[in-house]
């Protein structure tokens, strides 16, 4: 089949590579425009654009996807199918209806749970024990189309959103190929979602980074995992911001004021949390410095027992 691929970040790359290695023909790759990155703020090509250039495939990066000129370019490709993986924009009906078989999406959750922009982060932040991938038909309503296939994936207790993104990207690529092949054969089966069970996963913001030590330790631990690699969970000590990189639930410590350091010795940096719980900080990053272990931080007299951490 002739396929037009819509995708931008690294999450989309395994699916794109799977299609490129298949008998199907990717006629064009549509990506968001290149963005300035790094200290020099130089324009950097998107991950999918790099793949396209390596394979000599045309890349379209429209500023607006509703313009007639862009829609006409897609029509000229005469695609059988549109495949969308983390493209980052809501597609208009005028675009969805162009491919002969419509458009399908690789979504990183078991729909109808976690529709929206941040399904991976929200699942990890919620402390879910599993998540997954759904291949669904794209319709006007956000992530509400019928599902062709799903596959569940466990979330390990220490896994971050970054860890799960890599795992789900790989699973999604394999699942996508099975659905694309079934669409070509004409034996694909799609099942409507139960919209009454839908939950939503709004985009994560920087404002969610600061930790409230009144939360239970489990909630804080899941937030630390869920906010990696961006925007990162943080706290303050004496007005200095500290990013929390790796944590664990601590036990055997007497309840204390939330945010109070109850142990600061050797490898142990333990902070009292809400509901009488405690959190062990294993790795952290003081602002403007490298990531370090709790031992390294304590040797540098970053904090002592009795200090109070804030937001």
State the end-to-end distance: 53 Å
Number of strands: 15
Roughly what fraction of the amino acids lie in strands? 25-35%
Number of helices: 8
Please summarize the sheet with the most strands: 7 strands, mixed
Q: How many structural domains?
A: 2
User: Remind me, CATH topology of the largest domain?
Assistant: Rossmann fold
Tell me the strand order in the biggest sheet: 5-2-1-6-7-8-9
Secondary-structure-based class equals: alpha/beta
Classified in CATH, the superfamily of the largest domain is: Formyl transferase, N-terminal domain
Q: What assembly state would you assign to the polypeptide chains in this entry?
A: single chain
Helix content: 25-40%
Q: Determine and state the CATH class of the largest domain.
A: Alpha Beta
| CATH architecture assignment name of the largest domain | 3-Layer(aba) Sandwich
Tell me the overall shape.
elongated
In round numbers, the mean pLDDT is: 96
Rg over CA atoms, rounded to whole Å, is: 23 Å
Provide the succession of SSEs: EHEEEHEHEHEHEEHHEEEEEEH
Low-pLDDT stretches are none
């Amino acid at each position: 089949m002739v396929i037009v691929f819509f995708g931008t970040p690294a999450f989309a790359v395994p699916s794109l590579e799977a299609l490129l290695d298949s008998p199907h023909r990717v006629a064009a790759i549509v990506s968001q425009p290149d963005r300035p990155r790094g200290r020099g703020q130089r324009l950097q090509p998107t991950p999918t654009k790099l793949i396209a250039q390596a394979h000599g495939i045309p890349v379209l990066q429209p500023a607006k996807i509703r313009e007639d000129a862009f829609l006409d370019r897609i029509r000229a490709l005469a695609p059988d199918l549109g495949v969308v993986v983390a493209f980052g924009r809501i597609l208009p009906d005028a675009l969805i209806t162009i491919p002969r078989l419509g458009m399908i999406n690789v979504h990183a959750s078991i729909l109808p749970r976690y529709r929206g922009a941040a399904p991976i982060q929200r699942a990890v932040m919620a402390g879910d024990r599993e998540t997954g991938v759904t291949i669904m038909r794209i319709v006007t309503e956000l992530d509400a189309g019928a599902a062709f296939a799903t596959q569940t994936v466990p979330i390990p207790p220490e896994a971050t959103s970054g860890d799960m993104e890599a795992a789900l990207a790989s699973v999604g690529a394999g699942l996508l190929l099975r659905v694309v092949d079934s669409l070509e054969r004409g034996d694909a089966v799609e099942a409507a979602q139960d919209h009454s069970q839908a939950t939503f996963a709004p985009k994560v913001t920087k404002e969610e980074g600061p930790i409230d030590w009144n939360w239970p330790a489990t909630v804080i631990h899941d937030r630390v995992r869920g906010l990696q690699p961006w925007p990162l969970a943080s706290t303050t000590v004496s007005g200095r911001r500290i990013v929390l990189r790796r944590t664990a639930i601590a036990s055997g410590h007497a309840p204390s004021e939330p945010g109070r350091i109850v142990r600061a010795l050797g490898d142990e940096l333990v902070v009292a949390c809400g509901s009488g719980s405690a959190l062990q900080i294993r790795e952290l990053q003081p602002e403007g410095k490298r990531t370090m272990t709790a031992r390294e931080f304590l040797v540098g007299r970053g904090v002592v027992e009795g200090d109070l951490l804030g937001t």
